[in-house]
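Lab notebook page, bench 4
Experiment: in silico fold of construct C2
Operator: M.H.
Input chain length: 95 residues
Purpose: comparison with the prior construct
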Amino acid sequence: MVAARTRLEIATINLANVSSDRFARITARGTLTPSGVSIATSRGPAPKPGMPSNVDAIAEMIDVLAAERSFESAQKAVAAIDQSRQKSAEAARIE
């Protein structure tokens, strides 16, 4: 969920700055560490003076939608795990 949320935040920042002059697209790379997910962000090369940003609005919008769906899927998985735990706890109390 952390990775999906970060992906969504970065895509919305990029999308909001599509028309900004000299805005460099932000990218992120996630890695799995023993303590959880680690996200490293970086900026691409800045466009030359007078040039528009190097952000593709359509690609960023697609990334926003994909990140939203990924986050929703993670939420559903967590809800299913919680529901299973609750059923297990109820079954243990009945016996």
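Observations: The mean pLDDT is 85. Residues 2-69 form one domain.
Next step: discuss at group meeting.
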